[in-house]
């Protein structure tokens, strides 16, 4: 990891990095599963699968829920019911959740860098929430999310020249680390809001730089 001022592009994950929303997303998955007809154990199984696949979009998670947990056909109607319910819950919960308190200080400290969001969250939903929270203008290089995965988004944005290197990805999941490393970006893991249970061991094994909050970048 280089000094912050050396980076030309800062790429941020959303949940657990810019927004303190990981636990809210967990609650949303649980609530949507129960409303769909899952029992307690089935809803908890979806939550466990979600946490295990941190940084991955909701689409394959709900496919797994239907196919493996509920033993239900993965139909367009079932998927839409789950996706619509989840979107409604997320919009409600993320309207008031905590924004990283040092965001503006980091923006000032990296004035010459482009900022970008690459998240597992739904792209249209992210853009709406960021606009509502009045932080969308900070990320002039774009706000991106599913249905494209992070590998695809990173590859595309690097190819288009929208991610200028040296660049750093600021995330809180294994997938954030794996995708950003594959794309040739530096990576730092934020620990304060992560929902990865064994993050200390993972970061130690892979010699990953770890910070507590975003403000520690400065």
Structure description:
The chain has two domains: 4-19 and 98-217, 3-Layer(aba) Sandwich (Rossmann fold), CATH 3.40.50.1000; 23-94. The mean pLDDT is 93. It starts with 8 loop residues before the first strand and ends in a 7-residue tail after the last strand. Helix 1 (22-36) packs antiparallel against helix 4 (76-94), helix 2 packs across helix 3 (58-69) and helix 3 packs across helix 4. By secondary structure, the protein is α/β, with parallel strands linked by helices. Helix 8 (174-182) links the parallel strand 4 and strand 5. The chain has a six-stranded parallel sheet. It is built from nine helices and six strands, in the order βαααααβαβαβαβαβ. It is globular and about 50 Å long.
Short account of what is shown:
The protein has helices spanning 22-36, 40-52, 58-69, 76-94, 103-109, 123-132, 150-159, 174-182, 199-205; strands at 9-12, 114-122, 143-146, 167-171, 186-190, 209-211.
Count the domains: 2
Radius of gyration: 17 Å
Q: Please list the strands of the largest sheet in the order they lie side by side.
A: 3-2-1-4-5-6
Ends: how far apart? Answer: 12 Å
For this entry, what is the oligomeric state of its chains? Answer: single chain
Low-pLDDT windows of residues: none
Give the helices and strands as they follow along the chain. Answer: EHHHHHEHEHEHEHE
Biggest sheet layout: 6 strands, parallel
Q: Which structural class fits the helix and strand makeup?
A: alpha/beta
CATH class of the largest domain: Alpha Beta
Shape: globular
Percent strand: 5-15%
Helix run count? 9
CATH superfamily of the largest domain: HAD superfamily/HAD-like
CATH architecture of the largest domain: 3-Layer(aba) Sandwich
- Say how many strands there are: 6
As a percent range, the share of helical residues equals 40-55%
CATH topology of the largest domain: Rossmann fold
Mean pLDDT over the residues: 93
